[in-house]
Fold:
Amino acid sequence: MTPGVTPLVAGNWKMNGTAASLDEIRDVCAGLDAESTLPHETLLCVPSTLIERAAGVAAESALAIGAEDCHEKESGAHTGDVSAEMIADAGAKSVIVGHSERRTDHGETDAIVQAKAAAAWRAGLTAIICVGETREEREAGKAQDVVGTQISGSVPDGMKADTTVIAYEPVWAIGTGLVPSSDDIAAMHAFIREPMASRFGEEGSLVRILYGGSVKPGNAAEIFAIPHVDGGLIGGASLKAADFLAICEGIGS
Ligand code: PGA
Structure:
């Protein structure tokens, strides 16, 4: 954990969830609210179709609701897209940008991710900027090069620690059950911190760097205890309230 920062446990529902899933959000809120103090902030990023209802369910609770992507423009002729202003209007507080599934499925480049992060700030949202190498890149010894390039190209100028989160998600660890060694996670998080701190000064020293990729109830405490890990971005295991709450318990345990 970085001294002086409040860790964040964030869920990413991806393309999952309908009205029937709102009960899981209700259960997460109840579980969080049963704690007298929470050592972390908690966020669930849900599909656009659920933001408004999820935010309604989570109102008055310790859970914030976020979105999974946004368009970089405020409005216009972009059929099917949703702007940062629209998701803020629906009740989102944060938005994930540059998730590897967006980079792969939709060809999103660092420049697009950077524009989306700036759009998030424009709309008053926190931008959760994702980076991470593929298995081939790691095996070729290029993981740091790849992540360093993503960091410099995806984070806009003017970054502030209270409206930005970096998520390191090795592509090969997402949804696979594979997790890098603790040493590899610690090394990559320390590596990411360096250019953030040198480019943005204190803001870069304080920005939260989350780990994501196959975080589960059984490994969360171990991962959150790794130096320089300021919380997690949780995919599959955030879909069930009991699992997500168990992962939250891993902070500070
Ligand atoms: P996972 O996904 O926890 O299911 O591996 C993480 C993510 O894609 O954010």
